[in-house]
Amino acid sequence: MSSSILIAKLAILTLCILAVFYLRSHNRETSVNVVQKPANDAGLAAAKIQAQNEIDYFINSLADNSKDDKYKFSVKTPLVDKHGTVEHKWVAVTEYGNETFSGTLANDAVEIKGVKFGDEIAVKKSDVEDWILHDGYLNAIVGGFSLKEFRK
To answer: Do β-strands 120-124 and 130-135 pair in parallel, antiparallel, or remain unpaired?
Structure first.
């Protein structure tokens, strides 16, 4: 292999690696991963019921551990734009009070306009479709009831 071809291949590889590091350093996904389910999906309805039935565990864990950066808290909620388009998104939760979770949108919206990654979002307790608690000490996840429905 000639040295000019080798140099070109190394340059391309270097650019690819730099692009990946740039995207990761900005906490953005490198691709959009959208999974669609019917609005009346029985599995997702059951997951929401389970999430609501067990949400007090999430709230108590948030109250006990919200200042510890080894714990991460997220809730999933429907967002609706002015045209009635619905998109179900995860919100990284920072606090809870008055039956409402506060946090930031954990990824960009695809279908709806007017919200983006990092926007501050308030979610009523009754609007929570799912929740995830990540315990960094145990590397364990609690919740995520809807996730198995998307793996089917």
So the answer is: unpaired
Q: Which pLDDT score, from 0 to 100, does residue 34 have?
A: 59
Sheet holding 86-97, edge to edge: 120-124, 100-105, 86-97, 71-80, 130-135, 140-143
d(CA 24, CA 27): 5
Q: Give the phi and the psi of residue 54 in degrees, each rounded to 5.
A: -110, 15
For residue 59, report the phi and psi dihedrals to the nearest 5 degrees.
-65, -45
Q: Which residues does residue 90 pair with via DSSP β-bridges, in sequence order?
A: 76
CA 7 to the chain's CA centroid: 40
User: What is the pTM assigned to this prediction?
Assistant: 0.74
